[in-house]
Amino acid sequence: MSFLRRRNKEVAPPPPPTPFIEEITAQEYSLKLAFLARSSDGLRLPADPRMKTMLPSVVEPLAEGPVEVLDPVSHELADAAPSIERLPELQQWIAARSTVSPVALHALYVLESTDAVDMTVDSLAVALLQGETDTSGYPDYAAIVGGLASHWDEISGDLIVRAVVGWGGKGQRGDTERTARRLLSSLYQQVRATGHSLGAAAAATRAATGPERGGSVCAHCGFESGTDAFYCPKCGMRKVGREA
Ligand SMILES: [Zn+2]
Predict the structure, then answer these.
(1) Residues 166, 135: one domain?
(2) Partner of 220 for a Cys bridge, out of 40, 89, 237, 242, CB 3.0 to 4.6 A?
């Protein structure tokens, strides 16, 4: 009986109720990033591959570094997105761009995350337009990157060219935004100054990609586009069996 008494003694009493404290001492951490981009309306250039190869030289006078040419990615990578929440797609996105410079990678990140370009169909002549790069070549958060995006018109086969710029900002509108607008306008004017422009493209100057596509598949590059397409917006080739 003595051991039973001893055990009863050893049972720990329930802990006293903790007083409810509304605020404890804590530190808060946050990161707010905002990327902004602007795209001009399209300008129509003749259906000639030389028009596309000319575009880097149009961007050059406005660039603070080399102009890089980025072709559209393979259609298998249509779902690859530069989003940290979707790791497998992000890994695909990075792998598809392993040969791209830090400036172009930053530009793609800004312009693709904001939907200013669709690299399953757009080609891009892109450069650092304003700002600094760090020692490994990556642009500042507030640097302005951009250039000319282009795709082929699905009906006429003309080259549709848009000026695009992108930059990071802390939700503040100010000098960077003004400079970006000025650069966008300069890029657009530079295209017109080539003397090759046939005028402004109709409102729907971006090739239609998305759930509504699936009319026909390009025999040359595999791109799926709407039923009305005579030309592939991605590679510019005439659709098989389509007469313009
Ligand atoms: Zn094609």
Answers:
(1) yes
(2) 237
pLDDT, one tens digit per residue, over 114-134 is 999 999 899 999 999 999 999
The residue among 220, 217, 197, 199 whose CA lies nearest residue 209 is: 217
Structural domain including 182 reads 34-203
Taking the centre of ligand 1 as the mean of its atom positions, its distance from the CA of residue 140, in whole angstroms, is 36
Q: Is residue 26 situated within a structural domain?
A: no
Alpha carbons 138 and 57: distance in angstroms, whole number:
23
One domain for residues 239 and 175: no
Instruction: Kindly state whether residues 46 and 133 are assigned to the same domain.
Output: yes
Whether 65 and 170 share a structural domain: yes
The CA-to-CA distance between both ends of the chain, in Å, stands at: 104
Q: pTM of the entire structure?
A: 0.82
What is the 193 CA–ligand 1 centroid distance (Å)?
A: 29
